Amino acid sequence: MADKWIAGIDLGGTTTKIAFITNSGDIVHKWEIPTDNSNEGQNITSNIAKAIDEKLSQIGETKEKLMGIGMGAPGPVDYETGIILNVVNLGWKDNYPLKDSLEEATSLPAAVENDANCAALGEMWSGAGNGARDLVCVTLGTGVGGGVIANGNIIQGINGAAGEIGHITVIPSGGAPCNCGKTGCLETVASATGIVRLAEEAVKNSSSSSKLGELFRITAKDIFDAARDNDQLAQKVLNEVSFHLGLALANIGNTLNPDKIVLGGGVSKAGDILLDSVKENFEKFAFPAVRNSTEIDIATLGNDAGVLGAAWLIKNKLNQ
Predict the structure, then answer these.
(1) In 5-14, which positions are buried (b, 16+ CB within 10 angstroms) versus exposed (e)?
(2) Do 25 and 126 form a contact (C-beta atoms < 8 A)?
(3) What is the spatial distance between Cα 36 and Cα 120, in angstroms, rounded to a whole number?
(4) End-to-end CA, the chain
(5) Percent of all residues in the chain with a pLDDT value above 90, rounded to a whole number
(6) How many CA atoms lie within 13 A of 319 on its CB side?
(7) What is the pLDDT of residues 274-288, one digit of tens each?
């Protein structure tokens, strides 16, 4: 079993990342395929099975080399049954039996979990978590995802929806609409989309000059770059983002007191200019014992976090 590989899958609405991973967490092969969500997503698992078979053939291995398959999927997942409760952009109907479909297509034992939870597991196993058994991972991308690990186990909640950090309400009155149907969610101010919205509103309502006002289309990267150059409007946006994010993380820290809070996703690539500002707000709002023991850091695995966490899922399941 020790020399066998695990197939890790990170399922996205546009592309599906696949990797063969050793028992110790080393990626030996990784590649992507398009996600075909036509025909109510009926081709998704069969395409994954075909891609795995083709890759094994290319490298001169057989299915016997694989001990199992783990998958991270967007949306709440019932971990015990492997049913994905609802999805927005994969074509499946609600309560889709993803684990059963994956096992039928691949003839391998499978485990399925929410993709943000898999990213958290990946960082715990091989990344910034550095083996920490109490960890919160916050993914700052187009939206804001979250995964909570306590004593080495993902906290799933009664309906698979634990760790929805992006939907913590940070602006209780007058907040922007969120895709979840609420208003004022953390996602509306700390995702790439939310940060750009804040900047566009600031440019529109400001009479002072800013580099951002000269751009045809503002990106989150533009905002952080301008803030580094001491652009006052960009700095104001950064301060607002880090205030809300730091406050939310402090409340999470006060509730869980994790060893580490790890920030991942595209927005986290801003690095220290974001991290330092978030830490400052975290330290302002965190309970002293939490402030002195919980560390905030940037994720290290990038796009590999999801496949590694998915692989850890099935490795852990088969070893129990």
Answers:
(1) bbbbbbbbee
(2) yes
(3) 26
(4) 14
(5) 71
(6) 10
(7) 999 999 999 999 999
Residue 21 to residues 56, 70, 161, 163, 311, Cα–Cα distance (Å): 13, 11, 27, 26, 7
Query: Residue 149 pairs with which residues in a beta bridge?
Result: 135, 154
Q: Which tokens belong to 140?
A: 């700052």
305, 8 Cβ separation under 8 angstroms: no
Express each pLDDT in 87-140 by its tens digit.
766 878 889 999 999 999 999 999 999 888 999 999 999 888 888 889 999 989
Kindly report whether the global pTM for this prediction surpasses the value 0.90: no
Higher-confidence residue: 184 or 42? 184
Q: What residue type is 209 in one-letter code?
A: S
